[in-house]
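ok so I'm stuck.
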Amino acid sequence: MRAVLLAAGVGERLRPLTDESPKCLIPLAGRTLLARHLDAFERLDEIDRVGVVTGYLGDRIAEAVDAWLQETGSRLQIDRVDNPRFREGSILSFAAARPWLLAGDCIVMDADVLYGVRLLQRLVQSRYTSCVLLDDTAVRTGEEMMICADKRRVGHIARSSEPSTFSGWDTIGEGVGFTRLSAADAPALLEEIDALLAAGRADAEYEVALDAFVKRAECGFEHVHDLAWTEIDFPSDLKRATRDILPRLERPPAAR
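replied:
not stuck anymore, here's the structure
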């Protein structure tokens, strides 16, 4: 299974920290989000390759990948593809991963999430071949991307400000930003992405395509309300990550 990291974004809401550094290279307790992702991949036997979609300051990310490989001595195969239109919607980064999605089962992940390996393990070991992670303890601020499901099947994905995410579902919770996608289901999702792009929606978030996808393909979910994680979009998220999340995470493996 390949892990695909979407790491092309500018991180506007974290400026000035992102003026000269991609968001995934901001250090948290001395280790970057990118290094923490790679540490997790190294620990899971199910993940045999990694793809990184870069854009903003992409060469810095490539250098950091090389440094991680040298530090750890890992033989993990890490590939890169660049999204030159990274200032537009995240749907373009998902589209850039097309060859990887069609080549085999994948997990596609936002690179700006802090989490522990057990959370990722829950996704790669899920009984659902296509699925997402859902936290039903999330507090709504209007920013969260909500997962709405009936009878263990996801039926709707939208921002928490949307009235459609408030009721009418068996289960509602915040999505972590990680999607497991089977090779068999990938063409259906890519069709939805292509339809949006053909309609001039290059500014769309990739979750718009995911919302259309889950209405035509079976997509399950796994609960993660018992595990520590946070998305990092604002300076306040960095403070919370350091104060509340990091102390609850497993230590990464020591460098070899």
